[in-house]
Amino acid sequence: MSVSKGSRRSRVELARVLVVDDEADIRELLDLTLARMGLSADCAASLAEARSLLEREHYALCLTDMRLPDGEGLEVVRLIGERYADTPVAVITAYGSTENAVAALKAGAFDYLAKPVALDQLRTLIKSALSLPVDSGSEPASGEEGGYRLIGDSPAIRLVRETIDKLARSQAPVYISGESGSGKELAARLIHQQGARHAAPFVPVNCGAIPENLMESEFFGYRKGAFTGADSERDGFFQAAQGGTLFLDEVADLPLAMQVKLLRAIQEKKVRKVGSTMEESVDVRIISATHRNLKECVDAGSFRQDLYYRLNVIELRMPPLRERSTDIPVLVDALLARLCGTRPPRLADEALQALCAYSFPGNVRELENVLERAIALCSGEHITRDDLRLTPPGADAGTDGRGGAHAEGGANGQGGESLEAVVNRLERQAILDALATAAGDPARAAASLGVSLRSLAYRMARLGLDR
To answer: CB–CB of 277/237 below 8 Å?
Structure first.
């Protein structure tokens, strides 16, 4: 993240926290906890007192109850967002008030706590909030820290950068929508890098690649002896992401039974290992993504509505490459430099024009595949239009299983057919052969292929065979 040294200084230097709660015992508990962490607190029992204190003092953090005698905690959240945007605010909600928590996060709250307040969660929240950089008038982050960056200067990608800068200052769950290959995981990594959790792990999980019978143990871990083969205790994805970010890619592929367990883990911030009787607290930020329309999955009954609203607190849409075609020249330069090092081949003008005019159904991922193939096919130091082997508009190119067009070539992989296209074609034929042998019975076909029924269904959907 491109910020000045001053903007990365610790918020602990500010040292003051505003506590807003009408219950004296809660104010005392929060004040005492903050004092033990070396922080001083100003306490307000009403919305009016909070307003008065905010006018006189600059705070590193605000903790507010949702219900106040003269208003709602949401008013504090909105007030701070409008006038004191550099101060993160966390809300304290009644136990089980998921709707209030989601409403606060949508209004701009940094995070939330449920009553009765757990001190370990309170300390974790405070430390996370104090880890946020203090704004010193620097420009918005460019997203180049840690080797990850969003390339381009189109209006669409500038909007994505601005949104990521805002999301990085919150702990709210984020849902990233967009077509395959549009950069959803990159956006998730940038949100993590630029936020308070940047020093903790970023754990990406492809939900569609985990066999259903292993999901619970993979997500939550297991105790030794929990099942056959459990020779030692093992942590799951939640424990691996402790203090950091858990990125759930292709979250729409989660089975309904796992969706229930995931919802509870997100709401309670606790997980139970398989074979254990005890729950353990976890502190992770959830970012999810899928190339499918998650709302349509809810309407179809394949995705739980309550989990949808819990994940989709804030949505970030990644634009397809066809909506940011002006970025193609700089993307090409960056990709060629990455693929070839210091002496990349030069792209002929007619080749660049062809790329800019192409629709790229596979988005940036397809652009990279096209360039990689062209590098292998070009003669000398120039890439021509013919080297690109772009599919002519209207041609029946099929798909590469992720929305991208196949390279030109016959059924035997000739004419520059990509490795990915060959693999998808062979996998498609193997599934069709297994279904034919099994007289159309998916369960028998899955058994003959050595995969689970769910895995077979996912592969068929990816290859367009579910129809």
So the answer is: no
What sign for the dihedral angle of Cα 71, 73, 74, 75? positive
On whether the CB atoms of residues 334 and 150 are closer than 8 A, the answer is: no
Query: Options 3.40.50.300, 1.10.10.10, 3.40.50.460, 3.30.230.70; which CATH number does 145-317 get?
Result: 3.40.50.300
Q: What is the pLDDT of residues 196-254, one digit of tens each?
A: 899 999 999 999 889 988 999 999 999 988 888 888 999 999 999 999 999 999 999 99
Which tokens go with 215? Answer: 């999901």
CATH class of the structural domain 5-130: alpha beta
Q: What is the pTM of this model?
A: 0.73
Instruction: Give the number of other Cβ atoms within 10 Å of residue 408's Cβ.
Output: 15
Q: How far is CA 188 from the centre of its chain?
A: 4
Contact present, 167 and 191 (Cβ < 8 Å): yes
Q: Measured between alpha carbons, how far is residue 84 from residues 76, 108, 127, 164, 387 in Å?
A: 11, 12, 20, 19, 55
Give the containing element (helix H, strand E) for 281: strand 279-281
